[in-house]
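Re: [ENG-882] Designed sequences occasionally contain unexpected residues at chain ends

Forwarding the minimal case from QA. Structure tokens:
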């Protein structure tokens, strides 16, 4: 059972300025509550119990708002970064809080309308060091293609490494992934680096299997003013987690 997750929450959110000049992006209100609360509800509905958030830009406001997480039914801890360490460096910095068992990682500005429990079970069933959730998107190349073979093995991330099968399927990566703690062996300490530009190509080039979890689930993000407005409309229309929580409860009762 995977019970830990990390929310990447340290970024400056420059594309939402001037709103994010005085408010960290995870606290931007969406459908009447800070966006990070939607993310934490999504994680909790999937069975997550412990969450680590990395903090930098106005991180003290996030810590003040969430506290120890008990109000939201979670145990929340924090990993502070004096300088931004990017996605991979931030996760490596939090190794002492995450190491020892598998964990999920989710961006602090987006969430997928799917049952997280299905992704966690898929990772546990197939094993391996990493599972990337990917989705088809007409603009996938704009985000950096994630290329999978017919068996959902990831062979290239944003064009790296070169080589691999000649026939691959292109997807986009919406920022949800699952890691085995062995991934820390492939990460350098105390430096800033990207998961997609450094860690994943390093794993693939070494022959380590990276799995893809393909979904057509709706992707909700707040990365730009237009996306923020759309997210507010969507989440006012219906909650992300209610039906997934009900489905998970139904599975437990039927077991």
């Amino acid at each position: 059972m995977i019970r830990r997750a990390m929310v990447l929450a340290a970024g400056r959110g420059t594309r939402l300025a001037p709103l994010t000049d005085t408010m960290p992006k995870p606290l931007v209100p969406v459908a009447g509550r800070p966006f990070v609360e939607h993310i934490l509800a999504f994680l909790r509905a999937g069975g997550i119990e412990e969450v680590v958030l990395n903090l930098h830009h106005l991180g003290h406001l996030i810590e003040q708002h969430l506290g120890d997480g008990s109000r939201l039914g979670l145990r929340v801890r924090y990993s502070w970064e004096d300088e931004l360490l990017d996605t991979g460096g931030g996760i490596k910095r939090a190794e002492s809080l995450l190491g020892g068992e598998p964990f999920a990682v989710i961006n602090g500005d987006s969430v997928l309308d799917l049952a997280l429990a299905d992704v966690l079970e898929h990772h546990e069933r197939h094993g391996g060091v990493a599972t990337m959730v990917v989705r088809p998107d007409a603009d996938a190349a704009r985000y950096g293609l994630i290329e999978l073979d017919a068996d959902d093995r990831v062979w290239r991330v944003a064009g790296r490494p070169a080589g691999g099968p000649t026939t691959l399927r292109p997807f986009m990566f919406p920022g949800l992934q699952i890691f085995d703690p062995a991934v820390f062996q492939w990460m350098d300490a105390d430096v800033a680096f990207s998961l997609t530009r450094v860690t994943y190509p390093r794993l693939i080039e070494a022959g380590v299997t990276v799995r893809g979890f393909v979904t057509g689930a709706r992707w909700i993000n707040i990365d730009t003013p237009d996306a923020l407005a759309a997210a507010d409309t969507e989440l006012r229309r219906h909650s992300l987690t209610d039906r997934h929580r009900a489905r998970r409860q139904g599975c437990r009762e039927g077991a």
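QA comment: On inspection the terminal residues look reasonable. The longest strand covers residues 50-55. Proposing we downgrade this to a documentation issue.
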